[in-house]
């Protein structure tokens, strides 16, 4: 998941063969051009549908966009469960359930 989320979103410090432009002149969607065809396929057909489903599926305690943020904080940024609970305003002990449910939804998009 980390590759799908973060690949190519950071600027490079040198000229790039793939675009022939300085990194500062790249457009907002140029990170897609830096993905391999397999990575782009995974991003488009696994990550994006999962992200959309998760954002729509939020509940009163954790709206969908915050649910997505919670999962990404823990999985991608390696934030601890307690810190994620504080950051997202959740009761102690609830982040693990949201994380597990979010990853189960992600797993469904694998098949």
Helices and strands in order:
Elements: H1 2-6, H2 37-56, H3 64-75, H4 81-87, H5 95-108
Helix pairs in contact: 2-3, 3-5
Structure description:
The chain is mainly α and 111 residues long. The protein has one domain (2-108). The protein has helices spanning 2-6, 37-56, 64-75, 81-87, 95-108. Helix 2 crosses helix 3 (64-75) and helix 3 packs across helix 5. It is elongated, with a radius of gyration of 16 Å.
**Number of continuous helical runs:** 5
Structural class: mainly alpha
Overall pLDDT? 78
| First-last Cα distance | 15 Å
- In N-to-C order, the SSE pattern is HHHHH
The largest β sheet comes out as: none
* Tally of separate domains: 1
Roughly how many Å is the radius of gyration? 16 Å
Low-pLDDT parts are 8-16
**Percentage of residues in DSSP E strands:** under 5%
Helix proportion: 40-55%
Broad shape? elongated
Strand tally: 0
Summarize this structure briefly.
This protein is mainly α. It is 52% helix and 0% strand.
Fill in the keyword field for this structure.
single chain; 111 residues; mainly alpha; 5 helices; elongated
């Amino acid at each position: 998941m980390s590759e799908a989320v973060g690949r190519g979103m950071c600027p490079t410090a040198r000229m790039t063969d793939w675009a022939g432009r300085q990194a500062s002149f790249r457009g907002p969607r140029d990170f897609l051009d830096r993905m391999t065809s397999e990575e782009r396929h995974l991003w488009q057909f696994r990550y994006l549908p999962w992200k959309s489903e998760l954002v729509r599926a939020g509940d009163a305690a954790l709206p969908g966009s915050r649910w997505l943020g919670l999962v990404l904080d823990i999985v991608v940024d390696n934030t601890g469960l307690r810190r994620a609970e504080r950051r997202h305003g959740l009761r102690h002990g609830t982040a693990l359930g949201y994380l597990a449910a979010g990853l189960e939804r992600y797993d469904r998009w694998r098949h």
